[in-house]
């Protein structure tokens, strides 16, 4: 990946941007990404330049750029932005070597630096890729012993009606009632993952801010649709907690998860709600909300917050990942825009049957009991982990994020010993020393912790800095 770091004044044109980049970039360079200050990533000239060439465009907050040492700093730029060179800091942010130091081109102050950076994290890597026959699955965050028998019976019965095209109306009404909303504020989707794609296709954000580390599909969908994305990285030393001030004020689409995969951190509802404002869509991925007893920080029932879109999934708690079932709730006009992007009959008859069945008071009580059981199981896991392993943040969901010395090697050794855990380094903001581990029944956690203790006893210190 070649990263072109770029500093520019407001109002710069696409032609000026392309002339500057072409002056330093060898012809026919492939895999180009333009990186700049987040506010500049929203500039029409930069967007048009990136669009014309099919380049990715990424914006970074000034505070993030200010942390990168630059070879050619300028006092004037440092005074204005906080980094001595936007171009060099943006080029070097993800590592690599500076191959062309900054140069200024023409009357507009466009400076370009080029770095050959290591590949961006693989946003399409998910826990299921870690599985193999014979391995105990601590990599996928789906409840291992679900769906329960009564739900399997519902699914089987729904096959009898499979000849007819699916009718979403009853399930939609059931979901709407569960959240105290009218039907037109609910969109049923083939899993939460479909909702992210619909958002990316329906909206044309000037600046999308994605809070990381978090589930990577929302960012992948936004990038696939060609939208500029800025990453807001929540640091480890603050417990990966949400800092609303870190989200660029002019972001008109903000995406975050609550509780967050992979950190398991549960942000206070009030802190998340504070990010909503007129003119902005606030997408809160609550795929794991039902893993927290009582769902105290869920915003799914809030109808007063402008632009709030809450995405939910049934695949985790009910063990329905293969059925693909989820939904989004939000203002009716926004729901209608997303619906316009869906194909006809996007949610299958078994998925609709599961939705209606999992929304009854009895099913919700069962989910609540499962969340309470999970809380105890998580305590057991945390208590038996070896002392050299650091637990990041304050875990509140069905998985924990660990920092383990020489994590990549530890993961390999765990696999050799029959345990699959989820690598952390494909999440933006995490490193090879991060591993995500699913919370399972106490006897499974104890067995795992004993093996982990044995494996880490033979490892060297941490291999990478925590960003
Ligand atoms: C945080 C988060 N959101 C959404 C999803 C996707 O959920 P679904 O299976 O409903 O598409 C996942 C899957 O791992 C996830 O971790």
TrEMBL record:
<dbReference type="InterPro" id="IPR004839">
    <property type="entry name" value="Aminotransferase_I/II_large"/>
</dbReference>
<dbReference type="InterPro" id="IPR002750">
    <property type="entry name" value="CobE/GbiG_C"/>
</dbReference>
<dbReference type="InterPro" id="IPR015424">
    <property type="entry name" value="PyrdxlP-dep_Trfase"/>
</dbReference>
<keyword id="KW-0032">Aminotransferase</keyword>
<dbReference type="GO" id="GO:0009236">
    <property type="term" value="P:cobalamin biosynthetic process"/>
</dbReference>
<feature type="domain" description="CobE/GbiG C-terminal">
    <location>
        <begin position="3"/>
        <end position="113"/>
    </location>
</feature>
<dbReference type="GO" id="GO:0008483">
    <property type="term" value="F:transaminase activity"/>
</dbReference>
<dbReference type="InterPro" id="IPR015422">
    <property type="entry name" value="PyrdxlP-dep_Trfase_small"/>
</dbReference>
<dbReference type="GO" id="GO:0030170">
    <property type="term" value="F:pyridoxal phosphate binding"/>
</dbReference>
<feature type="domain" description="Aminotransferase class I/classII large">
    <location>
        <begin position="135"/>
        <end position="439"/>
    </location>
</feature>
<dbReference type="InterPro" id="IPR015421">
    <property type="entry name" value="PyrdxlP-dep_Trfase_major"/>
</dbReference>
<keyword id="KW-0663">Pyridoxal phosphate</keyword>
<keyword id="KW-0808">Transferase</keyword>
<dbReference type="InterPro" id="IPR036518">
    <property type="entry name" value="CobE/GbiG_C_sf"/>
</dbReference>
<protein>
    <submittedName>
        <fullName>Histidinol-phosphate aminotransferase</fullName>
    </submittedName>
</protein>
<dbReference type="Pfam" id="PF01890">
    <property type="entry name" value="CbiG_C"/>
</dbReference>
<dbReference type="Pfam" id="PF00155">
    <property type="entry name" value="Aminotran_1_2"/>
</dbReference>
